[in-house]
Amino acid sequence: MTSPKSILKQLNPSNPIGLQSSSWLSRIQSKIYSTPLDDPNAAITLPRQELKRVTFSVSKLTSERIFYSGDDVPEEDSTQTDLKEATLADEDIKLDPSQELPKYYEKACRMREEPVLDRFLDVLRLNCFTRLTAVDLSNKVIDRHQAGPIADILMLQHCLTDLNLSNCALEDETIRVLLNSLLLSDTLPVLDLSSNPFKAKGFKYISIFISQSRALESLSLARCTPDRSSIQHLSQAIQLAPSLRHLDMDECGLKPQLLEVLSEGVRQSTSLSSLSLRNNRITHLGAVWIAAMLLTEEPIDIYWQSAEYTRRGLQRLDLTNNNFQHGLGPVAQALYNNQSLIHLSLKDCHIGPDGCSLLAEALLSNQYLQTLDLSGNPLGKGSDDGIQSLKTTLARNPRLVELNLADTTLGSSAAIALAEALPENSQLTRLDLSKNPLVTMAGVLALSVSIRMNDTLTFLDINIPPNDLDLAQLQNDIVAVCTRNMQRTFENNKPQTAKEDVESPEISCEPKVTCSSSTISSASSASSGLSHSIEEHPDVASFDYSKQHPSLPINYPLEDISLVDDLQL
């Protein structure tokens, strides 16, 4: 019996990555660079036909008339009368383009003999005089029959950029109906399917949509519960996806076995750059597969790619609220030679001084990471060893721009250690030390003195107790230096900004520095601190499509509405 074919080429597993040898890395290599003989799902196909449905154009439908004689002619009921009047009106009167979508939806409901979903109709009416760019049906139950008329509208070519179907109790067949219509138009970039009870077939339909759509850029599957088969389909779809950039799988209960399957798709993806895995209770058992997602030093050839193909790799990874207390070693080691990741969030991951030291040592070699969020971790509990390692990193790392150490049990000794690194650092612009009440006068004084010898820091947040005039004065001194650095940065960017204004007068160019209001908020001692998670970052899942979808008059020919039968080809 021949072994099933793998989508990966057989590579020499002796040292394909070029990293330091270790037990966890050897296990990853043995999994990635070999094909299990007993795995029936080594090659998974995602046929488009499974998502397709038979469609019938309204313009080609005919009416069947029955002839009666004498007194046998039945009276025409009100439904037939309304339908006839609507048909005559459509034929004789040209509809106002601003009111077409609600009328089309109502007619689709009549033809399907389904009740109107008031929530969806209200959305269409509210956007009568503007382009329909966002539809939010979250927390509204949508069954298979109600999905039919909605699918008819989604099939039309319009400027929809955001569709929210979160917590709509969508079943597998319901999502198939909707995704087929979305794929026919293929213009939707942001889709939220979180908190829905999808089964294996539902995840397969979603995977087909991911692999086929050339418009989809952001997808949320948070709070869904995939099994191994579902993750296999998703992993394959991520590899094939031509446009998917951000995937949200928060609170999906991803066990190590599921992370193992998912990691292969993430590593091989040609488009995925942002991944959110919050609240998945990932421990040291799953950390090795998180590390596998970050191994990007040596490109892996996919069978349909040329030899010149190079993977992009993850640029943003959010691991908030997982448990890496004893499992951060593999992740830290993967960072040594990672060349793609620029934003890493390890907020509330139970990381102690030892884990902080591992990360700091990795960042001495990593030359690409720009933002690191370690807030909510006991970094200073019982020892300052981790902060001392971080001090060395800040003095040598040339790329780290933002560091969040809020609520990390730091004391004055840790603050002094960080202050000693500021004069030698020439890249850091944001440092958050808020919610560390153990930092007293000595720590704040050290920061206020050292920041005067730093020319790049434009945001330094630290809380002080109320009614302490001496600490308030020191904090005001820190704010003054941050403002000075901001002005210098603005002046350095001003010639380039002015040139851009001349070339593009319609575009407002802003300096790439922190807003002054953020710095001034430090003096109020009431700022909540910096939180740089993927969800709070506006540039992760929000995209500007105004240039891709210019403003055009809305005019949908009535013939384009299709009645869709749920027959499967």
UniProtKB/TrEMBL annotation:
Pfam families (UniProt xref): LRR_6 (PF13516)
Keyword Magnesium applies: no
Protein name in the entry: Uncharacterized protein
Organism: Phycomyces blakesleeanus
Keywords: Repeat
Keyword Repeat listed: yes
InterPro entries linked: Leu-rich_rpt, LRR-containing_regulator, LRR_dom_sf
Domain of life according to the entry: Eukaryota
